[in-house]
Amino acid sequence: MLPLSLLNAAQNKPMLVELKNGETFNGHLVNCDNFMNITLREVYQTSAEGDKFWKLKECYIRGSTIKYLRVPDQLLDVVKEEQNRAREAGRSSRGGSGGSRGARGVSQRGGRGAVRGGPMRGARGRGRGA
Amino acid sequence: MLVVLRDGRKLHGVLRSYDQFANLVLEDTVERIYHQDVYAEMKRGLYLIRGENVVLLGEIDLDQEDDVPLKQVDWETLEPYHQKDIADKKARDELKANVLFEKRGFCKEGGEGDGY
Amino acid sequence: MDKPKREAILDLAKYVNERIRVKFTGGREVTGVLKGFDQLLNLVLDDVEEQLHTEPLPSTRQLGLVVLRGPTLTLLSPVDGFEEIANPFVAQDA
Q1: Strands B38-49, B71-72: parallel, antiparallel or unpaired by DSSP?
Q2: Structure pTM?
Q3: Topology given in CATH for the domain delimited by B2-104
Q4: Structural domain boundaries of chain B?
Q5: Which of A74, B66, B73, C26 is deepest in the core (most CB within 10 A)?
Q6: Start and end of every Sm domain (chain C) (predicted)?
């Protein structure tokens, strides 16, 4: 689950975008690309000082000006489920022996992704336990 | 994990993923602010942070975290102090930059002035 | 699944002959009527007015017909439906 695929999955979801200059934009994601350029609709813009507000029907933001994006918490679960479904579909269409190949079909670097995912999940569990 | 951004914000969360640009996905994020020996937290949720804005990314030892001699207070209580700290630091840095510029012939730092 | 998006994520054709607001790296800001564009986001705007962040009061100046370089644009939005409003986040985490 790469950061940019999470962004892709956030389409039509509400989000908050903060730019490097401190301005923030609250709106629904319409589209995004691999440069992190994004288009939003029904946008509330807030000045960097937080004292002025504007409403915009839609807007385009260049990815390189973004500081961070805040997206709904549930999105991660949704994406995880989608990935599982895709993996299952890949397995059944390619037959049982192709388990690892099926995983690869999920993303372009599925093999490495799976390895990455492992230790992270472990870390999470430890964090919750303590 | 602890993430420090170029604007000075400190975010604590669970690192969910990253890519070749060090863009980060941070889950269950809380933002922390500090003033002297107290701190406050605000729940922020799921973040996608653009890599170039990250100053520091470090793992938090949860066992040691319990021994940190800081006191937690309400966000609403601490926030005004925090804002004042930021404003004071900004004024100090501007004063410093002006002295360096006028008396020492240094150039002024462009724009963001965060030293990164 | 994660195919690179070749086509632009923004369809500028729908803004042709409409007034749009554009911000640049460095903080400059203009509005103008979109006359032309290319895939690099270079724009041609007519009747351009620059919003200057002057002290104590903001001001404007007329620039006429202008070519805007795509790589320097940071923000683009239609002027239609753009308005300053009161804080919409009262009693809500902005």
Answers
A1: parallel
A2: 0.76
A3: SH3 type barrels. (2.30.30)
A4: 2-104
A5: B73
A6: 7-82
